[in-house]
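Pair request: fold both.
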Amino acid sequence: MDSERDRASLSKFLAKSPSADLYSLPKGDIEQLVLNNDRPALTSAGSFVSRKSLAVLIGLARGCHPGPTSVVTLIAGMLTVAGGASWVTSVMTVITVLAGQLSIGWSNDWLDATRDAMRKDKPTAAGAVSETTLRTAAFVALALTVLLSVQVSWPYGLWQLVLVGAGWLYNIGLKATALSPLPYAVGFGALPVYAMTMAAGKVEWWIPLCGSLLGIAAHFANVAPDVDLDRAQGVHGVPQRLGARRSLGIALALLAASGCLIVVHLNLSPPAIATAAAVVVLPLSAGVWILVLRQDMRLAFGLVMVAAMLDVALLVAVAREPTSGARQSELSPP
């Protein structure tokens, strides 16, 4: 800059306009601000950039559906570790699954942004993050999980791609049709196969069936609290057509079937099998009682989640068995 007046003008501009984009300023002007120790203006503009970046990160965190994303990633990690995988394999599996789940969560909020315009609990409706940012983040995460699945996890990474593909198909349109449970059945059936083959290279035939039952149960339970809102927005998947009460009842029944399937395949003594069965049956029975007699949807939903966690814990116990995957027909990469 050539004069004191110019420097003063630039400082005044930044001080009065903390929202100014520093990247739009000539490089020499910014360097001169630093050289002349004109820190108040620079600090003000820099603070704005930091606050804006933080707000976007928070919006992305909210838009990724952190609950389901964390649970699915945790399940994959637990199954891989329980199967005896090395820490490198376990970490790469977790990163791959996390990237896939992030892409599913972000694409869901991006594709539903117009429908969710009146829902202030959604980051796009609240203005925390833009549709463009969500779309970009979704495709970046998708590219990452595809790269890791092909380059690091091959050939078992094909199961991860099945999981991610099912999630995207649900978001793109199947969620509002009579086929809404299908992506959950396919995706959650593929999840334990991917995690356990990464550890041992093989898995028993009944494990993806168990995962599918858990996935469909999760679909009905997850949608149940919002069926009325979904109907008003034109989403008519199977849970929305059946209603919250029936959806939770179906979720309980599917979890019971999944739990029984796991228990009968555990290498336990008869007393231990009876104990494991009771652990699964008790919360399910309580859920049915609450659903039928008290009709408390929130409490019934909580019990469904407890039963699902118990089923996952039993599945992890199966993965820890040294003979798991060797007693019956085994699955190979798709």
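--- second member of the pair ---
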Amino acid sequence: MRIRIALLAAAALAGIAVAAAGAAAPPLAEGVTFKPVAKSSVAGTGIVTANGVGTAVTVRLTGLKPNSTARVLLRTGRYPQLSASFAQAVNVKADARGRARASSAIRFRNEPVAFHIVADGQHVLTVISQGRVVAVAEIPGLD
């Protein structure tokens, strides 16, 4: 009888563990698409991902001037009505073909920016090259 109770208890605990694992929250990530603006040819893709208390971003861009540098910034609003305030997302260096790829943590005044802020449906990533916005990616809000 004791063996039977022990087996039933073990089976019940295993069932609870499987149910808890199935209910685990999926990784928090949002894919984005950079679209050219202001007659630019810069385009690309990116992903913003929850990273501990902050947010990480990975971008792949094309259409930059060969061997140039650009900055990707997090801003509030929708193009062309963007906030003056921004958070540094990532710096990129284009290769000889104008392609760039980079990853970094998003920081505001050297502090991490929480994923729930970035993915609230009110933020965009902007690519700044030679002092002007050349591409924009809207970050969708979490459902």
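Observation on the second member. Residues 67 and 95 are 5 Å apart (CA to CA).
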